[in-house]
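Comment thread on ticket #2218

A.B. wrote:
> Attaching the input chain for the structure job we discussed in standup.
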Amino acid sequence: MAGCEQAALASYWMDHRPEAFRGFHVASGAPSGYAARLDLRERDAGVDRGVDAMW
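C.D. wrote:
> Ran it. Output below, let me know if you need it in another format.
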């Protein structure tokens, strides 16, 4: 999957499930990453091929 496609999927999920995301920061406070824990639903099929593969 290309970087642009990954960014589009991250944006989609952040728009639709913002509560699923957590940001991580280093001691200085600078951002260092994020993680998402998505509670997938049947209606999510067809949006993300990773979801489709797991469904």
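A.B. wrote:
> Thanks. Noting for the ticket: DSSP finds two helices and two strands in the chain.
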